[in-house]
Design goal:
With 407 residues, the chain is α+β, with helices and mostly antiparallel strands. It has three domains: 8-235, Rossmann fold; 244-333, Elongation Factor Tu (Ef-tu), domain 3, CATH 2.40.30; 344-407, no CATH class. The protein has helices at residues 28-35, 53-58, 86-92, 109-118, 136-147, 164-180, 193-202, 222-231, 238-246, 355-371, and strands spanning 13-19, 65-71, 77-78, 95-102, 123-129, 152-157, 186-189, 208-213, 250-259, 263-272, 274-276, 280-284, 292-301, 304-306, 308-310, 314-319, 331-333, 379-382, 385-388. Helix 7 (193-202) packs parallel to helix 8. The longest helix has 17 residues, at 164-180.
Length: 407
């Protein structure tokens, strides 16, 4: 068994969120990239991205799924057309791109936000149907990417069946939306190799938004997109990555599974440190705010067994504890640290630098009014943690309260 999924120490991991928008449109590009096969025009490419039967029936992603795409030193893609397993892709790749497929429909917006906040992606890849144009959820997802300060790029699909006038109208609408977001973002339509190099150098700085026009059926624009992904660097540099790995281990639990003959398996993100097989960590917090020591019996990453995982990597850990006491949002902490402190009250500081953050502040104000009227309380998310809360008061940083304190 490899200690770290073969040569992982030499690989660059880039997490890309797929914020798809429309029914029967969204998973095509992800399936084409990871499977190495073009779509047949009826959704064959999307089937490998779905996890549940109802997703296949409706054509909508409702959960979070993971897929990978590898590149060798020459920039050639390594996918399931040449490799039969994810472990084989990891062994042959010198750079690995991890796709985290999110739900794009408004009904599953909470799932999308959980993925955006819980997995700390390096970039967001927003997929828009060229013939449908910019819809309300397009603006919503763009706003969340800007508010969370995550660099993003846009994929326009179905360009082969979209009239030129409609395609230009969609591009103009995207430019208008990017301008109205309140951020200085310049759209860059990628057409040549020079455009790719310009996009690669400016996307991490969050001042340029590359736009790729592709077709999952004809394959138009796919090679340019793959070259861009191969050259795109991770947001965190080597020094920052080393600093995270030297910190005490911390693992955020986002998914829980009961695996036969294995027991409780938790999936999530290693936010800092290095977790090894056989390590003892503290699980919690429980309802009384305490933590319980558990042992990591085995580790899997990208469906392949390994002996350790590093900071910023997603993994599945088998732990020796009953699944009945584990819940989403819990964490695994280094026992050498003082036990994590659970609190019933906290302060959140918001700024109003962008329209999306102003919208968030206005939403908080409305939640403040709603929470005093015995209606549904607001849901607070931090990483994979989530908790219903009561907004006690909202204050300006340097003046009196915006709203009176509850009586």
């Amino acid at each position: 068994m490899p200690s770290d999924n073969s040569s992982y120490s030499l690989q660059l991991i880039i997490c890309i969120m797929l914020c798809f928008l429309l029914k029967r449109t969204y998973p095509f590009i992800a399936g084409v990239l990871t499977q190495g096969q073009l779509d047949n025009g009826r959704g064959r490419a999307r089937l490998n991205m779905f996890r549940h039967l109802h997703e296949i029936q409706t054509g909508r992603t409702s959960s979070i799924s993971h897929e990978i795409l590898g590149f060798d030193t020459a920039g050639n893609s390594i996918d399931y057309s040449t490799c039969s397993t994810a472990e084989e892709i990891c062994e042959n790749a010198t750079k690995l791109v991890t796709f985290i497929d999110l739900a794009g429909h408004q009904r599953y917006l909470r799932t999308t936000l959980s993925g955006l906040t819980g997995y700390s992606p390096h970039y967001v890849m927003l997929v828009v149907s060229a013939n449908a144009g910019v819809v309300a959820m397009t603006q919503e997802h763009l706003g969340y990417a800007v508010a969370l300060e995550v660099p993003f790029f846009i994929i326009l699909t179905k360009v082969d069946v979209t009239p030129k006038a409609k395609l230009q109208n969609t591009l103009d609408s995207l430019q208008k939306v990017l301008t109205n977001l309140g951020s200085k973002k310049v759209p860059l339509i990628v057409k040549s190799s020079d455009d790719i190099f310009s996009a690669v150098s400016n996307t991490p700085k969050e001042n340029v938004v590359p736009i790729f026009c592709v077709s999952s059926v004809s394959g138009s624009g796919i090679d340019q997109l793959k070259r861009f992904l191969h050259l795109l660097p991770p947001r965190s540099g080597l020094k920052e990555q080393e600093k995270l790995e030297q910190a005490h281990p911390e693992f955020q639990i986002d998914e829980i599974f009961d695996v036969p003959n294995v027991g409780c398996v938790v999936g999530g993100l290693v936010t800092q440190g290095i977790i090894t097989e056989g390590m003892t960590l503290n699980l919690g917090p429980f309802e009384d705010g305490t933590y319980k020591p558990v042992a990591v019996t085995s580790i899997k990453r990208n469906r392949a067994a390994c002996r350790l995982v590093r900071a910023t990597q997603s993994a599945a850990l088998a732990i020796d504890v009953s699944i009945m006491i584990v819940r989403k949002g819990m964490v695994l902490l280094d026992p050498r640290l003082a036990e994590g402190q659970a609190t019933m009250c906290f302060q959140v500081k918001l700024t109003r630098k962008s329209p999306m953050k102003r919208k968030l502040l206005l939403t908080l104000l409305s939640f403040r009014r709603a929470s005093t009227c015995c209606t549904t309380p607001p849901l607070f998310k931090k990483g994979s943690g989530r908790q219903f809360t009561l907004v006690i008061s909202v204050r300006r940083l340097s003046s009196s309260p915006l709203l009176p304190s509850p009586t």
